[in-house]
Amino acid sequence: MAEIRCDALVVGAGIGGIYQTLKLRALGLRVVCIECAPEVGGTWYWNRYPGAMSDTESYLYRYSWDKDDLQTYPWDTHYLYQPEILKYLNHVVDRHDLRKHIRLNVTMEAATWQEQEQRWTIKCNTGDVFSARYLVNALGILSKPNYPNIPGLQSFRGDLIHTTSWPQIDLSNKRVGVIGNGSTGVQVMTALAPKVKNLISFQRSPQYSVPSGQGPVTREYRDWVNKNYDAIYENVWKSKTGFGVPELDRPTMSVGPEERRKIFEQLWNQGNGFRFMFSGFGDLTTNVQANQEACKFIHSKIDEIVRDPRKAQALKPTELYARRPLCDTGYYQIFNRDNVDIINLRETPIKEIVSTGVKLQDDTVIALDTLVLATGFDVIEGSYLRVTIQGQDGRTLQEHWKDGATAFAGVACAGFPNMFMISGPQGPFANFPCAIESEVNFITSCIERAEKASAYIVAKAECERQWVDLCTRLTEGSVFTTTKSWIFGQNIEGKRPHVKFYFAGLSAYVAETKQEVDAGFPSFDFVKANDLEKGVEANTGSRVMIQEKL
Q1: How confident is the model at residue 497 (pLDDT cuts 50, 70, 90)?
Q2: Do 262 and 340 lie in a common domain?
Q3: Number of domains observed in the structure of the chain
């Protein structure tokens, strides 16, 4: 098959890939975007499980530059469910005439940097071979599913479903078990509870969750958002989280117990996990005593909501409130239903999966028709390590990341010229659409500078190390380090924990990358190759190049 040449190949047509394709087209580049799914949408194409919903308010789970579109494109609830988000992304693709630049059902299998040509060669499952000057990977944070290492898992004779591959299936009158109770588990169980015959939650590490505040929005509310759109996003870009919630500095222990509970109660009633964690007090993520006050409050709400003391006790986390904050649409309430039960795996672990269901350590077998795995993802690098990406001197990304995934500013790796990642390791921990936008804007600036210099661009190794060191220092003193979560890769058995995000906040990340651009990209080398006839030594084949610091 003939080689397909383009200026830039974007891999992935989710939120990041769509925006990056649009931005590079605006630079006048010939861009091809490939997507392994049969539709655009990224994670919102794959994650079709019941109850799949964004935990960001509707007017913030979109592109910030799409102001006019917000006024005309319908949104009726405070949070968007998966079909609505997928429909929105398709709408953006069509509105900006991007579909002709996107090739569906195409999966990147290998990418190799060609030093003399200063191009990437990308091989795909279809047999297509692309040659591109720039390779931008938008493979997604939540793309590679994590399957639990439980003996006998494949011996189950019923329906075994991972939430990332939800089939068209009728579960009414079925006995359903769910392993996993993070954001996905909470959403899928809340949605399934009133529809199935029986629902069993297998919980090893219960998590804190607060109400989302989901519900219809009024016309007046939409008018307020449209009228104040610029001011809303001005505050978002100045914030740490990007969730559009107030971020107070008030110490938790600066107020008395009565006032503290009143504040927590107000936040609970307003809804949203990030609001609960950041809008009442400023030290829940750094002060153990303060965090414990939030834990005690949520424990009290569990006791208040769940009538069965056994179930309530099993739902109470013993860790600090120190993971990405969850929110729900009635999660704790489902455990008041007669058809919903919970197995506390801290007391009775799973021994194995058998053909008829789940066998516990005491040899009790929980009979099931369907077993749902809500066990999350191999976050960030899982999406990359299943592809062979080979940079300078034949060094692979797997080799570069042998001690943990790293990247300068979350977007670029030393030794991989003209290659960028959207939502790569050590990118901003914030509202994902805003974090993605900030990274795409930075990547676009890098490419624009390389174009003007007629050179390739590559991150400096020492600057990549310095960035990772900074990200590591930013976790010091954070209560988030006390829990084993996907934020540090500890949800994957056998993986060495390491920092995956930049925790200084969205506004700090935007400022850091703006400073990099304004200073002339000091963390990168721009390299021009000599004419090939002069640049290759006849005897050794070694490359000779002119390296310019721009």
Answers
A1: confident
A2: yes
A3: 2
H helices of 152-198, in order, are 183-192
pLDDT bucket at 492, cuts 50 / 70 / 90: low
Predicted pLDDT of residue 489: 76
Span 314-325, average pLDDT: 96
Q: Taking Cα atoms as reference points, which of 310, 359, 10, 399 lies closest to residue 156?
A: 359
CA distances (Å), origin 138, targets 8, 70, 131: 13, 24, 18
Strands of 402-498 (E only): list them: 419-421, 427-428, 456-459
User: In Å, how far from its chain's centre is CA 320?
Assistant: 22
135: left (phi > 0), else alpha (psi -120 to 50), else beta?
beta
Are 294 and 353 contained in the same domain? Answer: yes
Q: Give the residue among 356, 67, 379 at the shortest CA–CA distance from 233.
A: 67
| Of 34-48, 62-76, 256-270, minimum mean pLDDT range | 62-76
Average pLDDT over residues 265-270: 98
C-alpha 56 chain-centroid distance: 13
Cα–Cα dist 222/244, whole Å: 15
H or E element: which one contains 104?
strand 102-104
Instruction: Please check whether residue 158 is in contact with residue 371, taking contact to mean a CB–CB distance below 8 angstroms.
Output: yes
What are the residue ranges of helices labelled H in 454-505? 461-474
How many CB atoms within 10 Å of residue 52?
Answer: 23
Which pLDDT band holds residue 550 (cuts at 50, 70, 90)? very low
Residue 497 CB coordination number (10 Å): 15
- Report strand pairing: 370-373 vs 159-162: parallel
Q: What is the pLDDT of residues 96-153, one digit of tens each?
A: 999 999 999 999 999 999 999 999 999 999 999 999 999 999 998 877 888 899 999 9
Cα separation of 549 and 524, whole Å?
Answer: 8
From 187-201, 228-242, 503-517, 531-545, the region with the lowest mean pLDDT: 531-545
Q: In DSSP terms, which residues pair with 84 in a beta bridge?
A: none
In whole angstroms, give the CA distance from residue 389 to residue 353: 36
Q: How many CA atoms lie within 13 A of 430 on its CB side?
A: 30
> Which residue, 163, 213, 153, is CA-closest to 186?
163
CA dist., res. 445 & res. 99, Å (int): 24
Q: How far apart are CA 494 and CA 490, in angstroms?
A: 8
100 with 174, same domain? no
- Token pair for 338: 């007669």
CB count within 10 Å of CB 228 equals 12
Please report how the helices 219-227 and 229-238 are oriented relative to each other, as an axis angle in degrees rounded to 10: 70
Same domain, 293 and 390: no
The answer to whether residues 397 and 488 belong to one domain is yes
Could you tell me the residue range of the domain that residue 208 belongs to? Answer: 159-373
pLDDT exceeds 70 at position 534: no
Round the average pLDDT of the chain to a whole number and report it.
93
**Which range is least confidently modeled, 328-332, 474-478, 541-545?**
541-545
550, part of any domain? no
Name the 3-class secondary structure at 131: strand
Span between the terminal Cα atoms of the chain, in Å: 39
